[in-house]
């Protein structure tokens, strides 16, 4: 049974990492081999895309705006499976809607949507960017009730938690002040998940095979994937202090200050992604992220998700405070 996968948003961290796992079967023997990987990308010259090309991915330029063209593009890839990773783009919602409709018309059988944990708790007025994921999930899952669409046979949704890698945006404060400035309040908690853990689950789902497309263990599943530990800001700082062997403090900053910090330090991050981050922080402050969801990760991979201390160890070079050098005035 062949498996030809098209991954959208391949220039982004998520799409890039999922494709990376699928393209290196010798490196990740617990992930089943696939026949081909197509990287659908808004930015074909991006360094992530060039790396995927060097690993054997076929690169296809994604030009949104015309559904008919998108249908033909997907047909030409020859893919039977689509991994829908919403791109970092101001028109993310419209682009994803077009992709779902095109995948339906192109006769693609298997669809995996990378959604967002917490989207179901988001208020359409206060967290509109987060809430958009619920609309996309509904669109993907509604194909199940359409007997004329092959796309309904084998859907799966992964609701990914807050990526721990977002904390790296505050590396300047971590290095210069020994602090993590986050606008999450002091009482409530969240469970940051390592991006690599989400990519692992996705790679297992995309490569798994059953009589209807995806493995029956994964087909039709709504998988919520968060980190394994609930952390308030202080607990996150404690995990960082332990991992980095250097004192790290949590600083509860206002949403306004958070916006300024992101503007100053995340120039490469798309504006829509900054809005998404700020909305997720507001969800934490409202007490709507006080849960962990690790069952899907255990069931799909057979492993344990990354603990916060291990995450901070992985990125110790980026976050460890720089010791102040004494000036020699002689």
UniProtKB/TrEMBL annotation:
Residues 2-284 form the NmrA-like domain. It comes from Daldinia eschscholtzii. It comes from the Eukaryota. This is NmrA-like domain-containing protein. SUPFAM superfamilies: NAD(P)-binding Rossmann-fold domains (SSF51735). InterPro entries: Ergot_Alk_Oxidoreductase, NAD(P)-bd_dom_sf, NmrA-like. Signal peptide: none annotated. It holds the Pfam family NmrA.
């Amino acid at each position: 049974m062949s498996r030809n996968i098209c991954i959208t948003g391949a220039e982004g961290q998520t799409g890039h990492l999922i494709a990376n796992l699928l393209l290196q079967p010798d490196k990740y023997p617990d992930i089943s081999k696939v026949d081909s990987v197509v990287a659908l990308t808004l930015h074909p010259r991006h360094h992530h895309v060039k790396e995927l090309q060097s690993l054997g991915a076929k690169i296809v330029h994604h030009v949104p705006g015309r559904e008919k063209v998108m249908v033909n593009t997907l047909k030409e890839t020859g893919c039977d499976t689509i991994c829908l990773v919403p791109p970092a783009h101001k028109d993310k919602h419209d682009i994803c809607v077009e992709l779902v409709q095109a995948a339906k018309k192109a006769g693609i059988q298997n669809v995996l949507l990378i959604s967002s944990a917490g989207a179901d708790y988001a208020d359409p007025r206060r967290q509109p960017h987060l809430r958009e994921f619920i609309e996309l999930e509904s669109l993907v899952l509604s194909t199940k009730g359409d007997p004329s669409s092959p796309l309904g046979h084998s859907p799966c949704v992964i609701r990914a938690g807050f990526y721990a890698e977002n904390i790296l945006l505050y590396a300047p404060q971590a290095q210069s002040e020994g602090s993590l400035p986050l606008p999450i309040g002091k009482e409530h908690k969240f469970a940051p998940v390592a991006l690599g853990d989400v990519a692992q689950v996705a790679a297992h789902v995309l490569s798994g095979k059953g009589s209807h497309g995806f493995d029956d263990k994964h087909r039709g599943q709504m998988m919520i994937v968060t980190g394994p530990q609930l952390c308030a800001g202080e607990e996150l700082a404690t995990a960082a202090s332990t991992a980095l062997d250097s004192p790290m403090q949590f600083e509860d900053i206002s949403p306004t200050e958070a916006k300024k910090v992101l503007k100053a330090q995340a120039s490469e991050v798309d504006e829509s992604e900054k809005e998404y981050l700020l909305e997720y922080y507001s969800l934490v402050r409202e007490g709507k992220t006080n849960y962990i969801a690790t069952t899907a990760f255990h069931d799909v991979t057979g492993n344990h998700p990354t603990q916060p201390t291990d995450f901070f160890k992985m990125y110790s070079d980026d976050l460890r405070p720089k010791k102040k050098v004494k000036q020699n005035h002689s």
